[in-house]
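C-alpha cells for chain A. Residues wanted.
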C-alpha cells in the first residue's frame, strides 16, 4: 500500500509480492515454448530436492525436537541455533505445508499407472511422517483431506468429489458430538503433545466446550476477528494498523480492503486461465481441484500461500502429463 507514507518500506513489500512470481514466470516460459524435456528435468530436480529435504527434516527433528515449529515462530535472536537447523537441512513451515499439497498429484501418478501401490505407500508414509514429526496439526488435517481422490476411481468427475465434500461437511456439522468424540479419540494416537492438544481443542470446539482463552484455537479465532474488524472498519482501501497475522485471506482483507481483494481475485483468475483452465477436460483436473481447495483452507487458517506449488510444480506436472497423453493419442490415431 503506497499511501502508508515514506516510512513504510515499500520496496520490501514489492519484493515480497513479486518474488513468488518468478516461479510462475518459469512455468509460463516452459509451457509457452513447449519444451517437454526441460519441463521434465526441472520437475525432477524440484521433486528430488523435496524428497531429500523431507528425509533430512525428519532426521533433523529427531535430533532437534520442535525444530520446525521454532523456525516457524521466527528465530531472529537465535541465529546460532537456526544455523544448526540449516546445516541439518530442516524444512520449515512453508516446506511442510507445500509437501502436503503434492499428495493429490502423487495419487494421480499412481492411479494413472506410473508407480506401484508400494511406492505410493512409501511416499505417503514419508509425507505423513514429516507432518507428524514437525507437529503441524493443520498440515495433518490438510494432508488427510488431500487423500480424498485415493478413495475414488481414476476418472472420477469433479462434480462427484465436490458433492462428497459438501455432504461430508454437512455431516460434520449435523453430528458434531459424534465427530467431536472421534477427533478426541484420534488425538490419543499421537505422542506429540502439540498435535494431541490441538486436536482436543477442535474436539472441544465441536462440542461447544472450548472455554479456555489460552488455547491455540481461541488465539487464532481472536486474531481472525481482529483482521475481520479492521477490514469492516476500513472496507475500501484497508488499514496500515497491525492485523491478526494468522490468516492470509483475513489479513490481506484488512491490509488492502476491497480494492486489494478485487485485484487479488483478478490475479488469481489470470493464474487459473493461464495454468489450469486448459486442463479442464483432462482426468487430472479433479486432482487439481483438490489441491486448490486444500490451498484455500490453508489460506484461511494460516498466514501464507504456498505459491511455488500452485504456479510451478502443479502446472509443470499437468503440462507433462497432458503432452504425454496427446502423444499417446496421436500414436493410437496413426496406428
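Reply:
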Amino acid at each position: 500500500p503506497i499511501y502508508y507514507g515514506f516510512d513504510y518500506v515499500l520496496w520490501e513489500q514489492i519484493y515480497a509480492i513479486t518474488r513468488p512470481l518468478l516461479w510462475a514466470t518459469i512455468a509460463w516460459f516452459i509451457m509457452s515454448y513447449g519444451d517437454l524435456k526441460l519441463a521434465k528435468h526441472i520437475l525432477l530436480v524440484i521433486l528430488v530436492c523435496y524428497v531429500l529435504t523431507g528425509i533430512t527434516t525428519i532426521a533433523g527433528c529427531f535430533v532437534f525436537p520442535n525444530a520446525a515449529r521454532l523456525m516457524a515462530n521466527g528465530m531472529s535472536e537465535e541465529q546460532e541455533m537456526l544455523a544448526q537447523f540449516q546445516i541439518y537441512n530442516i524444512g520449515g513451515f512453508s516446506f511442510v505445508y507445500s509437501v502436503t499439497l503434492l499428495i493429490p498429484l502423487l495419487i494421480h501418478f499412481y492411479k494413472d499407472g506410473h508407480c506401484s501401490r508400494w511406492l505410493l505407500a512409501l511416499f505417503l508414509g514419508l509425507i505423513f511422517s514429516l507432518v507428524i514429526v514437525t507437529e503441524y496439526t493443520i498440515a495433518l488435517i490438510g494432508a488427510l483431506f488431500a487423500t480424498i481422490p485415493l478413495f475414488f476411481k481414476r476418472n472420477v468427475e469433479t462434480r462427484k468429489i465436490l458433492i462428497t465434500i459438501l455432504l461430508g461437511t454437512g455431516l460434520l456439522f449435523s453430528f458434531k458430538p459424534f465427530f467431536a468424540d472421534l477427533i478426541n479419540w484420534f488425538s490419543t494416537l499421537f505422542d506429540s503433545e502439540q498435535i494431541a492438544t490441538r486436536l482436543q481443542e477442535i474436539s472441544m470446539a465441536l462440542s461447544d466446550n472450548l472455554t479456555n482463552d489460552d488455547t491455540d484455537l481461541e488465539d487464532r479465532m481472536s486474531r481472525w476477528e481482529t483482521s475481520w474488524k479492521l477490514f469492516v472498519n476500513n472496507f475500501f482501501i484497508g488499514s496500515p494498523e497491525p492485523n491478526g497475522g494468522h490468516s492470509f485471506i483475513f489479513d490481506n482483507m484488512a491490509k488492502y480492503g476491497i480494492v486489494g481483494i478485487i485485484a487479488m481475485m483478478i490475479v488469481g483468475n489470470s493464474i487459473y486461465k493461464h495454468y489450469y483452465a486448459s486442463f479442464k477436460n483432462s482426468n487430472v483436473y479433479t486432482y487439481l481441484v483438490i489441491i486448490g481447495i486444500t490451498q484455500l483452507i490453508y489460506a484461511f487458517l494460516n498466514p501464507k500461500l504456498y505459491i511455488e506449488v500452485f504456479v510451478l510444480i502443479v502446472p509443470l506436472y499437468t503440462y507433462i502429463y497432458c503432452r504425454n497423453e496427446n502423444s499417446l493419442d496421436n500414436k493410437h490415431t496413426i496406428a
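Residues 1-8, 328-335 have pLDDT under 50 and may be disordered. The two ends are 59 Å apart (CA to CA).
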